[in-house]
Amino acid sequence: METKEYLQMMREIKDCTFATLDGDGRPATRIIDVMLADEDGLYFLTARGKEFYSQLTEQWFVSVTGLTKNWEMLTLRGKVKQVPQEMLTPIFEANPSMNGVYPGDSRNILEVFCLYEGQGEYFNLSKTPIYRETFFLGHPAGHKKGYEVTDACISCGVCAGLCPQQCIDAGDPYTIRQENCLHCGLCAENCPTEAIRRR
After folding, report:
1. Which InterPro entries does its entry note (predicted)?
2. Which domains are seen in the chain, by residue range?
3. Which of 26, 81, 165, 178 is the most exposed place for a label (fewest CB within 10 A)?
4. Do 27 and 62 contact (CB within 8 A), yes or no?
5. Contact 120, 3 (CB under 8 A)
6. Reduced 3-state DSSP string for the chain
7. Quick count: other Cβ atoms within 10 Å of Cβ 156?
8. How far is CA 1 from CA 97, 118, 128, 147, 152, in A?
9. Residue 118 and residue 167: Cα distance in Å, rounded?
């Protein structure tokens, strides 16, 4: 799928976990509504008096995770920016329940943010084998996850026999189908020649 489709899925989940770091460098999470999604990113808001607002304006970075009813997890980590308050009008139109939470002019305490650049992952646990795909928003520096088999592989087959998703294919060297890998590390822990490493 394309990035815009994954962003729309996060909008449909709506209630996602947003993570930042607090003043002591510890993780801080909260459930926040994804208010809008378009090709430019995910839009959400918070009040200026909240710790979440302070963390966003100090770090300009957030990690967002949501889970569909079909056990499809979506994660997007990246940069955020504040956008003009004029965005409150389309947000309140698309999310009418907000009118009860912040009626009238009280909505002016809210600030709108856009997650505009980052790396995401779609992870479907309902398929066998599982399926995962990396997607990108904007032009971030990519970060590879999971494991790979190096040339130190002796093609003994230990890793393939242990893999819970059976996603390691025979060869010289063996290869891991990244789209089906759990990233559990069982293959790396049991490789007799330590030929498997993190990507």
Report:
1. 4Fe4S_Fe-S-bd, 4Fe4S_Fe_S_CS, PSI_iron-sulfur_center, Pyridox_Oxase_N, Split_barrel_FMN-bd
2. 3-137 (2.30.110.10), 147-198 (3.30.70.20)
3. 26
4. no
5. yes
6. CCHHHHHHHHHHHCEEEEEEECCCCCEEEEEEECCEEECCEEEEEEECCCHHHHHHHHHCEEEEEEECCCCEEEEEEEEEEEECHHHHHHHHHHCCCHHHHCCHHHHHHEEEEEEEEEEEEEEECCCCCCEEEEEEECCCCCCCCCEEECCCCCCCCHHHHHCCCCCEECCCCCEECHHHCCCCCHHHHHCCCCCEEEC
7. 13
8. 30, 16, 19, 23, 35
9. 27
Q: Left, alpha or beta for 76 (phi > 0: left; psi -120 to 50: alpha)?
A: beta
Look at the chain and count its residues. 199
pLDDT digit string, tens, across residues 148-196: 999 999 999 999 999 999 999 999 999 999 999 999 999 999 999 999 9
pLDDT in tens, 2-41: 999 999 999 999 999 999 999 999 999 999 999 999 999 9
Which of 36, 30, 10, 144 minimizes the C-alpha distance to 91? 36
